[in-house]
Structures are given as structure tokens and as C-alpha cells.
Amino acid sequence: MSVVDQEDHEGDPIDAAIGPGSVEVGLWQWRLTQFQRIAGGFMILKGLTYWTTLLGAGDGEGSAFSEMPIDTQAVTIFFAVIDLITGVALWLGSGWGSMLWLIMAGVQVFADILVTEVSGFMVLLTMIQLLFVAGYVLLRFMVQLERSQRR
After folding, report:
1. From CA 3, how far away is CA 45, in angstroms rounded?
2. How far is CA 50 from CA 31, 39, 46, 106, in A?
3. Angle between helices 27-55 and 120-150 in degrees, nearest 10
4. Using one digit for the tens of pLDDT, what is the confidence trace for 56-99?
5. Conformation bin of residue 19: beta by default, left when phi > 0, alpha when psi is -120 to 50
6. Residue 43 near residue 90 (C-beta atoms within 8 A)
7. Which residues of the chain have pLDDT under 70?
8. CA-CA distance, 96 to 121, in Å (whole number)?
């Protein structure tokens, strides 16, 4: 669009800017966005941890992926993929990413309970994930409170 065209359309609302300058973001919404990025980074690291198990990086002789029970292999493969997808979706702030994350946190707890071959480190990561979920629920509540006060 040339300079002349821009001058002709300055008052037209269809040409209004889209982005951070045109969107009012409350303090709690900003905090939630930053929290989602931190949680997304955690989920990416968690997914990469599963990938290291899957690929056998850093394992000793007796702990190869192929020697694990089939249910442990299935859980490892599932979370190696889904944790990375969830992490990227959280990082980008998508609504479906948050919902997927909440569902996967529940699935992770059940997997840790049902699959006995899960290491203590993975249980620790699950507990940290549950703390992140609790923080997310609290921040989401504060965002809703902030929105209702603005109206």
C-alpha cells in the first residue's frame, strides 16, 4: 500500500492495526501468558526427557528401551510425542493447548500409577507438572476476575 493509500484509509476501522498495540491486555492476562510460556518450556523439556529414554541416550547396558516392558514403551512413546505438542501449543498460547495440557496431566498421573516401571524422576516431573496446573487454574481464575471487573 502506498503512502497516498495509507492516508486515505487512516480513519477506516477495517485498516486498524492488529496486534499488541491495539489489544488491551490486563496484568493478570499478561501473567497468564508468561506462565503458559514457562509451562510450555517445561513440557518441551519433559518431552525431550522421554525422547532421551526412547533413543537410549545416557542409558547404561541394562536399561535399553527395547528391554522395557511393552506398557512402559507405549507410555514413553506416547508422552515423547504428546508432551512436545502440548509444550509448543502452550508456548504459543493456544486455547486448545491449555486444554490438551490439562487432559495430559490427568493421563500422566494415571500412567504413573498404572505403569510400575516409571522412574522416580518421571514421577517428580509429574508432580512439578501438577503444581504448574494448580498455578494455571489460579491464574485463569484471576484473569476471569480481572475481565469481570473491567466490564
Report:
1. 47
2. 29, 17, 7, 17
3. 160
4. 876 555 457 888 888 888 888 999 999 999 999 999 988 899 99
5. left
6. yes
7. 1-23, 58-63, 116-118
8. 28
Q: How far apart are CA 50 and CA 76, in angstroms?
A: 6
Cell numbers at residue 23, please?
489489544
**Cell for 48?**
525431550
Which pairs from 90-93 meet CB under 8 Å and 24+ separation? 90/36, 90/37, 90/39, 90/40, 90/43, 91/36, 91/37, 91/40, 91/41, 91/44, 92/40, 93/33, 93/36, 93/37
Number of residues in the chain: 151
Give alpha helix (H) positions in the chain: 3-8, 27-55, 70-92, 95-114, 120-150
